[in-house]
From TrEMBL:
FAD/NAD(P)-binding domain residues: 2-178
Organism: Candidatus Pinguicoccus supinus
Protein name in the entry: FAD/NAD(P)-binding domain-containing protein
SUPFAM superfamilies listed in its UniProt record: Nucleotide-binding domain
Keywords: Flavoprotein, Oxidoreductase
Annotated GO MF terms: oxidoreductase activity
Domain of life the protein comes from: Bacteria
Amino acid sequence: MKKVLIIGSGCSGLTASIYVARASFRPLLIEGYKLGGQLIDTNNIENFPGFPNNISGYCLINKMKKQSLSFGVRFLDSVVLSINFKSYVKKVYLNNRIQFNCFYVLVATGASNRFLNVYGEKKFYCNGISTCATCDGFLTKDKTVVIIGAGDSACEEALFLSKIARKVIVLCRKNRMRASYFLKKKALLNKKVFFI
């Protein structure tokens, strides 16, 4: 029996773990598919308070985990398959056949990459199609790259790839960009980034 279980190891899950641990509940944090979630792959974070000279997602997540550990948060490298919320005591089922009973479950599962579900997408994933510029950007050296989307992630990836690729084309799926003003402005001013 656990008092508090936290699902997700991105910024929100790690922040929640610090608050819960400081309240003397000794939470167990289920990391999910990868510690830090999508943020761990972010190369350059400019909008996180306390880091005026930027920080990488990897460094930020590791600092947050270290702080969580200093308050006694326990971590488990596993994935939650299902949760039964029907009774006062919640039942949480993990992929390694472990089951936890707990009173409180905090769900901080964040986001994941979205696919278009078009022909050839699965066939060419990791062979021309990528969801991580930081991971695969070196493959785009002196090439034309297409990014689909117009939110913060698309603009961040476009800015990163503009340092490597010859040309970056961003396909906006709607008639407007959803990115934050600062990122949108940086991307629009970049001479190697083009929006369609």
